[in-house]
Task: structure prediction
Amino acid sequence: MKSRIGNANKILVGYQLKDTYVPALMELCRNENIRFKSVGKEALGIKVGNLAGFDGFDSESVIKADSPVDECLIISGFSSRDMNRLLSELRKKEIKIDLKCVVTSHNQGWILKDLINELKREHEAMNKGKK
Result:
């Protein structure tokens, strides 16, 4: 069963993105009418739902220790077709971000730090033994 959440606005939230990726992502978002938000370590204690622009999520929480340095792209409000187009455009623009996810009803209440750590664990498990 697919999980749907009630935010029709398309948004990309990038965490700790390479400086070279930000202008390309901003251009892509401008051309496709997608909201773009770039965040850093100051957002690690904020819930994913808040970062994606959902109502009802607090934004007050501070994380001070062992902050993840991994880049992450959070995607919200995309249909399957939109998602395929986005991934295709990222490949064309040579934007390689290993940690990507879609906001779901399951992860929207997580703080960003916990989401990134989980994505990193999943990515490492899926790529174990690959070179």
